[in-house]
Amino acid sequence: MMKVAHTICPSCSIGCGVNLIIKDNEAVGTYPYKSHPINEGKTCKKGRDCFKIVTENRLKEPLIRRNGLNQSSWEDALDTIASQMKSYPSQEIGIVVSGDYTNQEYETMKRFAEAIGVGNIGCHTGSVPSEALETATLYDMENSDFILIIGDVLKEYPLLGRRIILAKENGAEICTVDTPDKTLTGINSHRYLQVESASTIIDEINHNILKKLNPNSTVIINNLKSEKDFEKILNFFGQSGAKMFPVFQDCNSRGAMNILPVLSEDDLRDLMEKVKILYVIGDDLASYMEESLKKLDFIISQGCLVNETTLISDVVLPGSCWAEKTGSFTSTTGKMQNISKITEPPGDALDDQIIITKIAEKMGWEPEKLGLDPEKTGPDSKR
Question: Which structural domains are found in the chain, ordered by start?
């Protein structure tokens, strides 16, 4: 049996529509979502391949570290986590979340942290809280007279790049600023300015370029790592009245930033200096700050994929991917889009909200306090 289901691509923050092809309850491919207003039936390689997230490298059962990581029951894994969390003061517990979860899951995570008194929580998703931004729309960008791009947008976000090319065809002048000698976006621009680093853009940019910025212009800022650089660039170019269009890497970075504190890499290091237990949800901290993780007493990792962090964790909880849950994502432009559950999680994996609620229950909190139906946490919760 085969079905095709509408959903939102989980590969970046642009918010393109994609159709997921399911055959015999397994994701086998994608098909263009021709009526979606953002990508209009076009897909990039990451969008075409997003079905692989459902099928490849999946976590399927809980794991506990006892002479290595070994398969465990949910009961044993949850009891172990609750016991560890209860044995430390709340200020020594940290929660770090990626930008790949739904808005509803972030609300549950926030309520969970509040319930157990954890203040060390945040998302490592971007550079600046999104409520501080009034973001340009795709229509604004496509109808701009002048577009200034910071970073290689065409390579990383081809469907956003398509809109830039359309703007160029409509007569917009395109200027790109980046650090490499040559980029794909630079090649497709009227002018390319190479700078030493993101932090030197303001000092190095040509004043003739600045004169072209006005309310009919758009500045696209591609996922700057430093919050300080982001705010500096945002404030500097915003003085011209140009519309700002920040691009974030994860599919719901903006939604996460609306609900949880934003953590830079420096913030993450500071957090890990303060805590003894770290609950990592979806992020792969070990891939870029493994040394900081070595200082911790206990690591809990929750997610749908095997990564470097799961391999060094003390307890691993298998969660669900985007195609296995219902909720909403907020795109980089602030547009909220709903997704619906298409298929079941594999093996013993569970919905992420249910996992968090089960931990809260083990710690003595009622599901209602997290805004969830307590019946969904019972033995038949997966179905």
Answer: 63-126+254-322+348-377 (3.40.50.740), 130-247 (3.40.228.10)
